[in-house]
Structures are given as structure tokens and as C-alpha cells.
Amino acid sequence: MAHTASEILEGLAEIVAEETGLPTDAVVAEKSFTDDLDIDSLSMMTIVTHAEDKFGVRIPDDEVKNLATVGDAVKYIEGAQA
Amino acid sequence: MTAAASREVVVTGLGATTPLGGDVPTTWSAALAGESGARTMENDWSEKYGIPVTFAATIKVKPDEVLPRPEIKRMDPSAQYAMIAAREAWQDAGAPEVDGERLGAVVSSGIGGIWTTLDGWDTLQERGARRVLPMTVPMLMPNSPAAYVSLELGAQAGAHALVSACASGAEAIGYGMDMIRNGRADVVVCGGTEATIHPMPIAAFAASRTLSLRNDDPAGASRPYDVDRDGFVIGEGAAVVVLESAEHAAARGARVYAQLAGVGLSADAYHITSPDPEGKGQVSAMRRALADAGATGPDVVHINAHATSTKVGDLTETRSIRALLGSDADHVQLSATKSMTGHLLGGAGALETLFAVKAVHERLAPPTINVANPDPELQVPLVRDQPSALPDGDIVALNNSFGFGGHNVALAVTNV
């Protein structure tokens, strides 16, 4: 069953919070993973691994570099479910 | 006695998380009270895998009660323990102002991040390569605890992880001492850690017939020098000390616990696991530590023995002490603190050096518990059941740490 964009944002925020220690409400669509959330490449790959598990999607390595913001990731995951 | 080296090294901070307590004050008071950290494990490893041992000296305060969640996720338990101990030691030293280029980190583990290694293997087999976490390598590498401590404190003079099985923690402290003596650093945070209470290594130690099987009495299982000892009790945890050049400590008015006055190293080159029965390597290590400290036999009042509670190892060590000290061994107070803490493997040498520092500072040797019937071949006076006062005046304590592979490390601690 497909998740809505807001469900994906909520789930992604939980994953990011678990990995970084940031509060979930700091993880909003316009935030940049690197510039705002200070997430390094290893953490980003960990988040991707957990997001793939959680939402049942595949996020290829080539796509990860295009996911600059939280909103980009939500949008990609939403589309990849279809 | 005079220090052999031009730069004296003192101990200004202590930290630990052990089967006896989550910090040094709790651990030390439990040791003086003769408590055991061994307990029945809460798992099904015995039924599931047929592991013959159902107890261990597990960590008293779990890291997830102390560390923030992201650190738990990014560090193997061995690094978590080291970080907890290092932070306590650093605060205990008064968080010294020191140029990062003059600050070192030397934290050893005997086995490394084995939980991470084996979890990664399980994940690979069960769920495939894409589910193996990207942090796996930096978590499993044996230098991970040293690296994290270096990152935490900004230690740029060098971060090292010397590996010599159960001598690793003591060797780390000896190396930290050398870094100060040879001018590479003014302050070094050093110690050892281990987190090996996982079914695979327990099965492997059990296979080598080195573990106690006293499942019906965990607290009585680690009994060095008792005639009924039947092997060691696996433990986990970390201990870290802050070493500092005496000048640096004096300049900032630091509280000094003791002087780390000598280190002695040797290798048996005899057998991969058994100690040389003649103890030549052990004697050499202790002799070198005393010479390095500018001390002689009559100065030695206390030895924290390696004494793991194995049939052969315990007696080999006391024979070595007697061979080195002769009649001077009659006034040594010998403590086998693994009777209480279990065997922390790569953490053991650091924790027992920390105990030797506390013993010198407080002039109080910790007890050896569970010695109902001392082995008649025990050749050195043993501190049993109650702590025992050490004499006034200038005193020397030794910590002995020996490891599979024939590694021998002795450290000499003196009062200041």
C-alpha cells in the first residue's frame, strides 16, 4: 500500500532523527541533508538503507546524489512506490 | 628512587565502565567491598547453541543509559565503553587546556568490533549486500575506539591502538607513557576496552577449555589462586587514564594520583596460548619495568596480578614474581581483581593499572575474593576478602598483564 507524502515525511524524519539525534520536527521538506542537517555521506547511505526498508522502494546510488533536500527524498520515494 | 627518564609521567584522570559500576568511584568501592560483577546472562545461547557457559561479568550500566542514540548507532559497543570511560577520565583530569597537537589518544581492544563484524555477516546472509550498513567498517575496525576518543578530544598528536590480546590495555598505557617521554605529547588519554560477550567468542573460548563452567555460582566462579579454580570468567568494559608530563600537570595545578614510573615489555616466543612455564618473559617484563622506574625489589609493595583463575597461568605468574624478587616477595601484597571484575580481555590491563594507581594513591590494596582454599603452590602473600593497607613512604606497585601470543607487559606505579 502506497504511503502519502506526509506519511513519508514523517517516516523519513524518524529515520533521520534516529541517525543524527536531531528532533523529528527539525526534519522538514526544505532542509538540505548536507548544509542544514549536517549529514555526511555514510550517514546518508545509512538513511537510504533504512528508507528503502521502511517504504519498500529501491533508491539507486545514482539517484541519491540528486536528493539534496528532505523534500527531494520524499518526492522520489513517493514516485518510486508507484 | 629516581625516574630513569627525563620527562616524568603522572596520572591525572581516571575513567571506567565495568561489570562493577558505570564509573570509577562505583567500580572502586565495589572492588574494595569484594563484590562480584559476574552474573547469569539473560539470553538463550545455551539452549540455542549449546554453549556450556551461562554467565559472564556483563557491564553494570548499559551504554544506552548514558550515550545519546546516534552514538549508540555509530559505534560498536567496544567503542561505546571506551568513550564513556574516556569522557569520565577527561572530566576527572579537569578537562585540561592542551594544544591538540600535544594531545594523544591510545585506546586498545584485544578483539575489536566483533558484534559489528558478526551482525554484518548475519545481515549479509539473511538480507543481502544492500542491507549491510555503510558504517560497518568504521565500527568494526579495532582502532575505532582510539579514533573516536581522538575525535572527541581533538587529539592530533596521534591515535593508536596496540593489539596484544589480554595485554592490550596495559600496552596502550605503556605506549602513551612513551609518547610523553619522547616528547610527542604532553597529555595522552589511554586505556583499553572490550565488548566480546557474544555467543561466538564465548563458544570459541569454551572450546579452548579456558572458561569457568561454574554455572550454578557465577559470583564464585572467578577464583584466582583457589585450589578449585576452573577457568576465567569473561567480562566486558573499558578503563581509561589520563597521562600527563609532570611539568604540564604542575603548571596547571592538576591533582595527581600517582606517577607512572616504568614500563616493561617482553614476548615469550614459546607458545601461541600457553605461558612459558619458566616465566622468563614475565620476569623480563617486570624486571624492565622496575629498572625503567629506577626501583628495586625492596620498593615493591603491591602487585595487581594478571591472575585469570586458570590452573596453569596463576601459578606461573607467582613463580615469576618469586624468581624476580626472591625474599622481597614476602612483603608484596598480591591482588587478583579479576576475582571481582571477571576478565575484560583488552580492557583488563587498563582497568588493573587503574586499580594499581588507586591502590598507590589511597595506599589500599583491593582484595581477592573466592579464595576458600589457597593453592599450596601460591608463592606470594595474597590480599584476601578485605582490602589491605599499603605502607607509608615511597612505594612501588606493579600491574602485570599477559596476553595470548606470549605478550607480557608490566607497568610500575609510584606515589608522588
UniProtKB/TrEMBL annotation, chain A:
Listed Pfam families: PP-binding
Carrier domain: residues covered: 6-81
Regions annotated as coiled coil: none
InterPro entries: ACP, ACP-like_sf, PP-bd_ACP
Pathway assignment: Lipid metabolism; fatty acid biosynthesis
Primary location recorded for the protein, binned into one broad class: cytoplasm
Record-annotated membrane-spanning stretches: none
Keywords: Cytoplasm, Fatty acid biosynthesis, Fatty acid metabolism, Lipid biosynthesis, Lipid metabolism, Phosphopantetheine, Phosphoprotein
Family the entry assigns: Belongs to the acyl carrier protein (ACP) family.
Name by which UniProt lists this protein: Acyl carrier protein
Gene field: acpP
